[in-house]
Write a structure and sequence with these properties.
The complex is a heterodimer of chains A (about 575) and B (about 120). Chain A has about 575 residues and is α+β, with helices and mostly antiparallel strands. Chain A contains 13 helices and 17 strands. Chain A folds into three domains: about 230 residues, 2-Layer Sandwich (Beta-Lactamase); about 100 residues, Helix Hairpins (Orthogonal Bundle), CATH 1.10.287; about 160 residues, Heat Shock Protein 90 (2-Layer Sandwich), CATH 3.30.565.10. In chain A, strand 1 and strand 2 form a beta hairpin. In chain A, helix 2 packs antiparallel against helix 8 and helix 8 packs antiparallel against helix 9. Classes of the chains: A alpha+beta (about 575), B alpha/beta (about 120).
Chain lengths: ~575, ~120
């Protein structure tokens, strides 16, 4: 038997076996389903809704928190980078405004200025002046650049146009990344010159690498073509193309999500740094950022699953228990109804039997006496004596009357015992009375009946009428189960100091094991087609229990069945509920 | 032994009386209570066989009345009915349980009467 079948409550397969007024009041399976569905819906709807709501709110909060944090970091970094460049540009502006072109054309002064710049601001590696024709007029630094012509070069055009120029990063002196800052100074005569300085980007890099970027993130600068300007951990080498696409222009800090080369989800915050070719990028791994969220999510799922399981278990348990109780109670109600009707019927049969017996008994007594008198006269009076044939006839009348008398006595005794009464009962008599009803049938069918009542059986105090019904039912069943020429055995023996057992054993067809568990249930019958009500044994069971006894059955198909009724020697007086 | 048989069925009681007479027992019968009480006044009986259920007066009541007149008289009850109440009362009232169910067996009746008289 599978676990499911074992867990199945007894009302589940309950077909409505009763008829008409003995129908069950409820459809148990429907009640159960309705209860389970309704309570589950009412109980789980809020739990699930809250879980989903909480999931979404927390998820959104987490994401916006990530965006906000990234955006703030990008803005701060941009300000720092922007300040670094502006500061250096301002220093150059100060120099060109404060010194005359003549002073700046002097290499010694320029060298002094470079030294001052290197002390005041870090990162300056050279300084030079270029005149309006694009020629390098003076230069202090590691290279020999005086006289170099920049005319027509892109940066020179730009500085002429915009007054300032900041270059991309390039590998300059001693293979260190550098960038160039140039400022234009216009003279009163309309001509101009340009002060050009090379700045080591090491300080720049320190600034960015000093940023605390969470989520395995990376802060770096690319130019507008996507060439990496400062070192990065994941996205390529300096002066190589970045592995990510160049984000589109935006005057403000922006955060977007994209896929990395390996397909991982990235959170990219960026800002275009004004007046420079640079874009500041901060790239974070979303998975790492969302780690706390994943943990929360797991907890949320676990808690929801636990709650739902608990609710379901409780609902299923309670619903099953309650419906089972309703089922049992209703079962009892129907059985009681039946029992009542059966008892009522038995009582009216009893009354009828008593009435008939009494009415017949008096004329029977007269016949008996008259026939007795005739017999006496034949025997005792000389004038009538001698006719053996007549004596024989009268004797035959007398024996018939005797038989009728036995029947009426039995009927009267049966009717008398319909009333509840605890009285001394002797098993030998009781069983003879019961068998008296079936004696003829046994004779016709050639059934052999053996009765064994042990000598040590005491007279028990019990209800004679109920005992008669019990054993009449059992013996009747045994007769129905046996073929002609069967063998019925009734054995009465002492069970213990307080109880006596009666075993009714037949060698009939037997009961299959499947049915054996159900034979005491009301309405269970294998003889429905033959008019069985399925009540005989359930009533027998009820009666045995009323007398404080116990009934057991053992059976083997094809070999026979034995019922053992164990009764207390002194039955407790129980009121009959139907009276 | 002198026996008084009382039963409302005349046919029964007369036949029974005759059968007892045939066996040498002096038997008289009455079909009503009044009849029985008159019979007792004129003649003495050792034993009375009474039907438990009779019209007007029950066998038990009759027994009380008869006993008042003849304190030494013994009684045997006969019933054609299985009514519990009457049986109970008969049992309690009659002291030792001498009651028989109809139809009667003549030998049993005689046996019971002898037993009753021996006491």
């Amino acid at each position: 038997m599978s676990i499911l079948a074992r867990l199945k409550p007894c009302f589940w397969d309950h077909g409505d076996t009763g008829e008409e007024r003995y129908k069950h009041l409820f459809n148990f399976r429907r009640i159960w389903k309705l209860t389970v569905v309704l309570t589950t819906a009412v109980a789980l709807f809020p739990v699930i809704s809250l879980a989903i709501f909480d999931y979404n709110v927390t998820h959104d909060a987490m994401e916006s928190e990530i965006v906000l944090r990234t955006s703030r970091l990008v803005s701060n970094a941009r300000r720092t980078v922007s300040f670094f460049l502006t500061e250096r540009k301002a220093a150059l502006d100060f120099i060109v405004n404060y010194h005359s072109p003549g002073e700046l054309n002097d290499s010694a002064t320029l060298a002094q200025l470079l030294e001052a710049l290197q002390k005041g601001f870090t990162g300056f590696s050279d300084l030079g002046v270029i005149d309006a024709s694009g020629r390098q007029r003076t230069y202090v630094g590691p290279f020999e650049l005086v006289g170099k012509d920049y005319c027509g070069q892109e940066w020179f055009e730009e500085v002429q146009d915009r007054g300032v120029y900041i270059s991309d990063v390039f590998l300059g002196y001693r293979q260190h990344p550098h960038l160039v800052i140039a400022v234009k100074h216009e003279l009163e005569d309309g001509s101009f010159y340009v002060l050009r300085a090379t700045v080591d980007t090491k300080r720049f890099n320190d600034l960015l690498s000093g940023l605390e970027v969470d989520g395995g993130g990376d802060a770096f600068i690319v130019n507008q073509q996507g060439t990496i300007q400062t070192p990065t951990r994941w996205h390529g080498k300096v002066l190589e193309k970045m592995s990510l696409p160049v984000p589109e222009y935006s005057p403000k800090t922006k955060v977007l999500q994209c896929q990395g080369v390996g397909g991982e989800s990235l959170v990219v915050g960026y800002a275009y740094i004004a007046e420079t070719p640079f874009i500041l990028m901060i790239v974070k791994h979303q998975n790492l950022l969302m780690k706390p969220w994943y943990k929360t999510r797991k907890e949320l799922f676990a808690f929801s699953a636990f709650s739902i399981t608990a609710v379901l278990v409780v609902i299923l348990g309670v619903a099953t228990y309650l419906v089972n109780m309703i089922h049992d109670t209703d079962e009892k109600r129907v059985a009681t109804l039946h029992h009542m009707e059966y008892s009522e019927r038995m009582a009216s049969i009893g009354r009828l039997a008593a009435g008939v017996a009494h009415e017949i008994n008096n004329p029977l007594a007269i016949i008996s006496e008259k026939a007795g008198l005739i017999h006496d006269l034949f025997i005792l009076k000389q004038e009538y004596a001698g006719d053996q044939k007549l004596i024989g006839l009268v004797e035959s009348v007398q024996s018939s009357v005797e038989r009728c008398g036995a029947v009426t006595r039995r009927l009267l005794s049966f009717a008398r015992h319909m009333d509840v009464d605890i009285q001394p009962v002797r098993f030998k008599e009781l069983i003879e009375e019961v068998l008296g009803f079936l004696g003829k049938e046994a004779e016709y069918r050639g059934v052999q009946v053996d009765v064994e009542v042990r000598d040590d059986i005491p007279t028990i105090k019990s209800d004679r009428g109920k005992l008669q019904q019990i054993f009449l039912n059992l013996v009747n069943n045994a007769f129905a189960a046996m073929a002609d020429g069967g063998h019925l055995e009734i054995k009465v023996y002492r069970r213990s100091a307080e109880s006596v057992s009666v075993k009714v054993r037949d060698d009939g067809c037997g009961i299959p094991e499947v049915d054996l568990k159900r034979i005491f249930e009301p309405f269970f019958s294998t003889k429905k087609q033959k008019g069985g009500t399925g009540l005989g044994l359930s009533i027998t069971y009820g009666l045995v229990r009323e007398l404080g006894g116990d009934i057991r059955v053992a059976s083997a198909v094809g070999k026979g069945t034995s019922f053992t009724v164990t009764l207390p020697i002194e039955a407790k007086q129980t009121k009959r509920s139907d009276r | 032994m002198r026996v008084l048989l009382v039963d409302d069925e005349v046919e029964l009681v007369s036949a029974l009386a005759e059968r007892l007479s045939l066996r040498g027992i002096e038997a008289d019968w009455a079909s009503t209570c009044d009849d029985a009480l008159t019979k007792v006044e004129s003649k003495s009986f050792d034993i009375a066989v009474l039907d438990v259920k009779m019209p007007k007066i029950s066998g038990l009541e009759l027994k009380r009345r008869l006993q008042a007149k003849c304190p030494l008289m013994k009684f045997i009850f006969v019933t054609g009915h299985g009514s519990e109440d009457n049986f109970r009362e008969a049992l309690r009232d009659a002291g030792p349980a001498y009651y028989l169910v109809k139809p009667l067996h003549i030998e049993t009746l005689i046996h019971k009467m002898n037993e009753a008289l021996k006491e």
